[in-house]
Each structure stands twice: as structure tokens, then as C-alpha cells.
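quick q for whoever's on today - can somebody do inverse folding on this one?? i tried earlier but teh output was garbage lol. C-alpha cells:
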């Protein structure tokens, strides 16, 4: 059986190669992604993911105790990468991705790495939002922000508060607008940044309308938005 360092290194290489989509140049064979294995929770995932995670865990557990905390964080980062990869698959791997996000959050918190825990909660929020579980997604974003000011979590929190109709006062809308402005250019994809910019522009317009007269509502152009603007001026304190 390989030693702790060799086992952990093999798992790390397989993990990195899978996430990056590279061929395994330093090994005779990389477990084929088209083959499937059950992971430690019983979910089917690409065999290379299951094998990589098993090797990382064995290598960590075989290592001297003083080294295990650092190795645990390295393993957590790879679990986060795997979770994000599984969340993008055409087949529904959301359950497999979800437990990995939660495990990363647990390992980050246990090892005093608040930023990692926050990032894991944020990506879980993103996954849940995509699945239409808005309330659960909001809870996850809030958990993320309890650890650190993760930009993705800040964006998702505002997005979900808007979707759930929980921005009910002018001051709440203004605070949300400032939160979106603060994370400009910090989101992990161009699509998310585009959505953030659009939402921020709309909230700026609503804010201007709330503080002005009926003329400010007319800048929206779209008749539905104009009517909504007038309605908001009536009901928002």
C-alpha cells in the first residue's frame, strides 16, 4: 500500500487533472470519467472523482496528526472543486454536489478557515437557487456571510431577497443597492457579473424614482415597469 505522502499526492493529481480536464501524463492510467463509482455517501459520480477523494482521505488519515489539519484543508479545496464540477454536469448530480459543499463548510469552520467555509456556503446557495429552492438558497447565502464577506454570497443574498419580495422599505432597497455595488467585478463569472450589473441598474432607477416625482418613473420605458414604479412610490415607506 502506498505511503501517506504518495497516496495523498496521487489523489491530488487525479483531482487536479479531472478539474482541469488534462490527461494524466505522470500515471499509466487515470480512472475513466465515463465509468461510475459510488462515493462515500453512496451517490454515483465519475470514477476518477471517487478514486481521487478516497486517495486524499486515506493519505490524510495515514499522515502524522500534526499534518492532518493542513491536509484536511487541501482536501476541502479539492472537494469544493469537485462539487462545482458536479453541479455543472448535464446529469443531475446536485445531491452529490450538495454534500460536498456542506463538508467543505464543515472542514473550513473546524480548521479556522472562515473564507473557505463562506465560499462553500455561497456555492451551495448558487446550486439551490438554480434548483428553484429560493428559501433554502437564501439561508445558505446568509450562512456564508456569517463567516466572511464572500462576494458571491452578497450578490445571491440580494438576488434572493428581491425574488422573495423581502425588500419592503426604501432603506432596505438602498442597502441592497450598495451591497451589489460593493461586489462589482468580484463575481466568479461574466454571466453573474452581467446579471449583477443589470440588477444594480434597476435598483438605482427604483431608488431615484422613490426620492423623486412621477417623471423619474417614466425613464423605465417599459409600461409594466412604469406602473410598478408608481406602485412602489405609493407603498414603500
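ok took a stab at it. sequence:
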Amino acid at each position: 500500500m502506498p505511503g501517506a505522502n504518495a497516496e495523498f499526492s496521487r489523489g491530488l493529481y487525479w483531482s487536479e487533472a479531472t478539474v482541469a480536464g488534462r490527461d494524466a501524463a505522470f500515471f499509466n492510467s487515470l480512472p475513466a470519467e465515463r465509468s461510475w463509482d459510488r462515493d462515500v455517501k453512496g451517490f454515483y459520480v465519475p470514477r476518477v472523482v471517487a478514486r481521487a477523494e478516497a486517495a486524499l482521505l486515506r493519505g490524510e488519515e495515514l499522515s502524522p496528526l500534526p499534518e492532518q489539519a493542513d491536509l484536511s484543508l487541501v482536501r476541502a479545496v479539492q472537494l469544493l472543486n469537485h462539487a462545482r464540477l458536479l453541479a455543472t454536469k448535464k446529469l443531475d448530480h446536485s445531491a452529490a454536489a450538495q454534500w460536498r459543499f456542506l463538508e467543505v463548510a464543515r472542514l473550513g469552520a473546524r480548521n479556522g478557515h472562515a473564507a473557505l467555509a463562506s465560499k462553500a456556503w455561497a456555492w451551495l446557495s448558487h446550486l439551490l437557487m438554480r434548483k428553484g429552492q429560493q428559501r433554502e438558497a437564501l439561508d445558505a447565502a446568509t450562512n456564508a456571510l456569517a463567516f466572511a464577506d464572500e462576494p458571491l454570497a452578497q450578490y445571491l443574498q440580494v438576488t434572493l431577497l428581491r425574488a422573495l419580495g423581502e425588500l419592503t422599505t426604501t432603506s432596505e432597497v438602498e442597502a441592497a443597492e450598495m451591497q451589489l455595488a460593493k461586489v462589482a467585478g468580484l463575481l466568479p463569472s461574466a454571466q453573474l457579473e452581467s446579471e449583477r450589473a443589470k440588477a444594480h441598474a434597476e435598483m438605482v432607477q427604483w431608488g431615484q424614482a422613490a426620492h423623486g416625482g412621477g417623471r423619474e418613473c417614466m425613464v423605465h420605458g417599459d409600461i409594466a415597469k412604469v406602473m410598478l414604479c408608481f406602485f412602489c412610490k405609493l407603498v414603500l415607506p
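fwiw The first strand starts at residue 36 and ends at 38. also The radius of gyration is 22 Å. so keep that in mind when u check it
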